[in-house]
Amino acid sequence: MKTEQIMLVILINETGSISAAARAMMHAQSNASKMLTTLEDELGYRIFERTHNGMMLTPEGEEFLQYAKTVQRSLEGMMQIAHEEPRVRLAVISYAYPFTERAFAKTFSRKLYDRERANLSLKLITMIEEAVMLLNRGHADVAVLTCYIENFRTMRSQFIRNNLDCMVLGQVPLYAVFSKDHPLAKKDGIFLNDLSQYPCITNDAIKEGNISTEVEKMLSNTRIRIQMRPGEGRYEIMRNSDAYVLCTPYSREELVRNNLTARKVPGSDRYIVVLTKNEKKNDEIFMDFAQNLKEEYEKWVETL
């Protein structure tokens, strides 16, 4: 079966005759008739009934035509590819960092806004395992996450085994953030034992394997622990209770705006890590995003 025979069937159905279809394909009628007969012999059934009123589809021909039109659409799509700008993709997954969102927006504004064909996405995640899985399955191009320093060597080996390039963007500790009216606000520094007495708000990323053993022990001794993503709900809880948030540092502006203060948690330093597939790391769009990420990270650090 040849593509030309499939197109002939479509044209015969549209024009109602072999002669008209042959003219459209710039073939002699005898050649078109032979092409149709050869196709029907190959299939083992008649596609058309030859009648006084023209060529009429048989029941088998009706079904064949549906497949033929699918082939036609596919062929048109294949031809269109050559005339279209290649589709660019930037799929970013990240912990809830403001600098990632700003870098993503900057990359779109500077590099992708004028593209006719581009797939862009920014999705929040909370687990390293989720990031590795999405990168391996091709559902993401780059991941921005944190890794506890003491575990970094082990995690880096895991990244390498998964064909992932790993870049350390910077180093940040965890902070305890609470209302300025909180009992701990009167202290210049805090100890882990101080924190265990109060309700603790975290997100899913603050868990075993991604924090120090000491912080894990403190959390296990905490009487009330609340897991929730960043947002107004956290501020509301801190305003109306002695709960605190264990998190990546808030900006000074955010602390002032919400009448909050923050204290560094001892022994909690973590790396902020950027992961991408090795075959993607030299892509123009990734390199542009990585540069924007570095710039926005440095700006973010200055606000702390």
Total beta strands:
12
Unreliable parts: none
What is the CATH-assigned architecture of the largest domain?
A: 3-Layer(aba) Sandwich
Rg is 31 Å
CATH topology of the largest domain: D-Maltodextrin-Binding Protein, domain 2
The SSE string, one letter per element, is HHHEEHEHEHEHEEHEHEHEHEEH
CATH superfamily of the largest domain: Periplasmic binding protein-like II
Q: What spatial order of strands do you see in the largest sheet? A: 4-3-5-12-6
Mean pLDDT: 86
* Shape verdict: elongated
Domains, number: 3
Content-based structural category: alpha/beta
Provide the CATH top-level class of the largest domain: Alpha Beta
Helix fraction, binned, reads 40-55%
Q: Tell me the major beta sheet.
A: 5 strands, mixed
Total count of helical runs of at least 4 residues: 12
- In whole angstroms, the N-to-C terminal distance is 69 Å
| Proportion of residues in extended strands | 15-25%
Layout: helices, strands, pairs:
Elements: H1 3-15, H2 18-24, H3 29-43, E1 48-51, E2 54-57, H4 59-81, E3 88-94, H5 98-112, E4 118-124, H6 128-136, E5 142-148, H7 152-161, E6 164-172, E7 175-179, H8 192-195, E8 200-202, H9 213-220, E9 225-227, H10 232-239, E10 244-247, H11 252-257, E11 260-264, E12 270-277, H12 284-302
Parallel strand pairs: 3-4, 3-5, 8-9, 8-10
Antiparallel strand pairs: 1-2, 5-12, 6-12, 7-10, 7-11
Can you give me a brief rundown of this structure?
With 304 residues, this protein is α/β, with parallel strands linked by helices. It contains twelve helices and twelve strands.
